[in-house]
Amino acid sequence: MVPDSSWSQQVAALAEEGACALAAAPNEIALREVYARYGGQKGSVKRAVSEAIARAPKEEKRTVGQTGNGALERIETAFASRLAALADAARARDLERSVDVTLPGRAPRIGHLHPITHARREIEQIFARLGFALATGPEVETDFHNFEALAIPKDHPARDMQDTFYLAQGSDLLLRTHTLPVQIRTMLAGPPPIRIICPGAVYRRDDDPTHSPMFHQVEGLVVEERVTFADLKGTLLHFCQAFLGPATRLRLRPSFFPFTEPSAEVDISCVFCGGTGCRTCKGGGWIELGGAGMVDPEVFRQVAYDPEKYNGFAFGFGIDRMAMLKYRINDIRRLYEGDQRLSEQFG
Amino acid sequence: MKASVHWLRELSGCDLDAAAIAETLTAAGLEVEGMTSLGAGLAGVIAAEVRAQRPHPQADKLTLVDVFDGEAVTQVVCGAPNVPAAGGRVAWARPGARLPSGLTLTAKEVRGVLSPGMLCAPDELGLSDEHAGILILDAGTPPGTDVAELLQLPDTILEVNVTPNRPDCLGHLGLARELAALVPGAKLRSLEVDLTRWESEREIRGLAEVILEDPTGCLRYTARVIEGVTVRPSPLPMQVRLARLGIRAINNIVDATNLGLLETGHPLHAFDLDRLTRQTVVVRRARAGEKIVTLDGQERSLTPQDLAICDPEWPVAIAGVMGGRDSEVGPETTRILLESAHFAPTAIRRTAQRFALHSEASLRFERGTDPNQGVALSSQRCAVRIAKWAGGQLARGLIDRYPAPVVPHRTTLRSERTERVLGVALSPAEQVQILTSLGIDIVASDGTIQCAVPTFRPDLTREIDLIEEVARVRGYQKIPATLPPSAVAAERTAAPGDLVRDALAALGLSEVITLAFISPHQLARTQIGDAVVRLANPLREEQSVMRPSLLPGLLSALALNQRQHRGDVALFEVGATFHPVEGAAPREVLRAGLVLSGRRTGWLKGGEPIDFYDLKGIVDALLTKLRITEIAFAASSDSPWLHPGLAASVSVDGRTIGRFGELHPAIRSTWDLESGVFLLEIEVAPLASAALPRFKEAPRFPGITRDLSFFVAAGIPAAEIRSATTEASPLLESMEVLEDYRDPERVPRGQKGMLWTFHYRASDRTLTDEEVQRDHTRLTELLKTRFQLVLR
Q1: Is pLDDT at B717 greater than 70 in this prediction?
Q2: What band does B493 get if pLDDT is binned at 50, 70 and 90?
Q3: What is the edge-to-edge ordering of all strands in the sheet holding B441-446?
Q4: Is A109 contained in some domain?
Q5: Are both A287 and A224 inside the same structural domain?
């Protein structure tokens, strides 16, 4: 007769062996393998306990069972504590990781809009808030829309082959020299009230650091029953301060354009020196921005508007120039080279 | 135009300093673009008479000069080689005198001899930059005369930008009239002269004759005769005045006409009367084949379009443009015929342009001169100057051919209209005062102001012109700044193309804007054979055709960026392309184009080289972003600029709107580009037309996925397989290609291996394996029959 105590000892020894093996497991995979051998319903400790209970005399089954439970618990505890220790160690190792935060990130490719597009958008938005709609038109224009309807006489120097690009196919077609034809087209298309701005590419036969043969202009036109030169002045002042900053001052100087009367050159206080005088403004404190004026009655006659009933004002300036002033670009040709490093600077 | 502040002050009676005058003129629309100060600070230099001279005892190049200042004789040391003989007049800066350089003179020893001050060269006086010798004054100058005053110093030369509507301001008189109107207290000096003092007994009739044959080209022709003149240099103060206004002094006769032009703005011409056949001037159109040698020595052939001043035999001047050499005033000239005329602007402009001869005279005639006061006054004043400086006498009277005199234009200003245009109320009295100050006669003023506009202001013909004058003289700066009455919000506020710009920028491409005219050579080497719109007058051959495609511009930009060692390039442009239409204006199409080259972004160093599918991904994303769904892609081998195997077309409703793919390797090498280059060009309008999105509930029940792996003929595109499956099961939600492989070791010849995954889902319940299996089997069978798939 084998005393029950030897069964108990065998179970305890097995549990001891299993607990040791668990505590020695070098990693979680090994730990789970060891546990699979000793622990759980199919492990060797459970099997040993079941066998001991089966073989034990009836009156001792209870004691053997208690010992067996203790052994099983030993395995579970050893497994859990080793698992926790391994997790702690893993976390401690994880916390040892570090990076060089000054290295660049893994960047998605980001795109950029051209500074002329940025400037044009901002100009459009400022005027949109004043109720100006957007109007566009073709870049190849007729002599009528570009010159004739604007009261620019036939022998005016601007109509010369020196200054205007003409198409080879016929002398009536040319590359528009301003976006004023869009105003003419808009007026021909319907009656007042009109409040539009016309941005777009225009072409003149110039090529030097301050002139590109293609550049961008925005022109505005308001035709209503009650608008005045004072409104023109207010509109331009509002625009310049919104675009170039609230400290910007505006100066209108009398000038001459065939399609406006009274006409004005529009100057703004120099964005570089604030008006005290510097190299850009040639010491004068002012920078020329563009032209403006009240729509000449002759233009209204061309589009069959009643100049007694309606007043109109118009203005125009270079988008390129505005962009150059705002972003301090010094050579207009930089805008048209296609260098990716240009747009990249503008977000 | 160059204007002397000294002269302007003299004519206008305005005593503002140069800066204030410049500011006043600029604010009135006569923009002063530049200012040059002359002789500022000059004081205490006087004219002195040379009495004697002897060599300096210690130095070869120095002279001791005895000068007399009207009271005493003093010895001055002088280093100049041109000390005049006794009796000559020089400019002596005495001790205490100040020069424009800032120097105050003292008595100083020069090589052992005391010199009280010095004799001045022109540059030391601030007159010019000449320093070859001392300034020699006119012989009659009284000793002791203040030299600054004599030489009209200090002075400031203004560079005035006169707009084409203001011919009256191309002379000092016109500018002075403006100043007199603009500056309180200033008053225009009268320039009328008394001729009788200078006239002889001889009548002009009989001395000369003028025949005006073309009264359209020449509205008025006047001639005066001055006899007994001696041609010599004009007085120094006049030479000085001409020089500082940019005109070279020639002789007293020519200088008098030039000074007249600068004074009144009206050009004059002097002929040697004795070199005109029968002393007769004929004003007519030139005859075909007639030639003239102009003052610049060039022989020029005239045409019947050119207005010529002739004698009875041949042309002696090109009217209003340039005189002829054969009738030029020279040293032997004793009798002058002085022309003052009005020529039609268009005739002069045409001739001046044809000869590319833009003279001071033609500039003014082209803009329009004054046939009344301009012609008369300048003739009188010039005649007197010639008589004064050349010692001649005027023949009595004037030959005046003026068949149709121009009368002042009448126009009316409603005083309340001024407020309606300007937005500021002005009393009728104030408006009348402003108009009067400009020389306009007010005929009546009772609510409406009736004006007679003098002929020197051809720009004032309408009411609006007078309103502008009121605004101009009163000052634009005094007009308030108001905003127009509020309007309803504008309907259209986004530019076409901006949606596409934003989408492409969001996809990592950077915008460029390139010139719309390109080189035909670039088109040819990009194999773009489209018909093109040509310019008649390009700046250069490389910019002579309007682009029919954005691609040459983008390839140029790519080449530039690669030259700058930027291998990874992703650029786009949105702009018009131009396409000829028979007998009509070209068609303009707004397009978007892009170019990709280099590598994918990696970390620290670049990723894999980009390939066709990077481009396709951008195209897909662009269309997704713009919500364009009804779109078809097809392989396309008909674009010569694309690699035939890596080229696709994009179509909407059966119409091709764009193409993309890898640049043809042959073109890539002619452009000398590195690595693979990927291009897209697509029309913008179809991309900007998506309907508003409609919300769809996202599915809430789980779906089931089944994969299918097979071999299929390599030529069957995925899109065909995809479209064949769409009808196979109502439960099929979507499908994707997970693999497409063609390596010969794994795939039978002519086949490709594909792995597809199909997602099944119902919107109203959780699917069972059985129903999905049923549908997936049907789909598999369908594909097997349709495409002869071999399942793996």
Answers
A1: yes
A2: low
A3: B409-414, B448-453, B441-446
A4: no
A5: yes
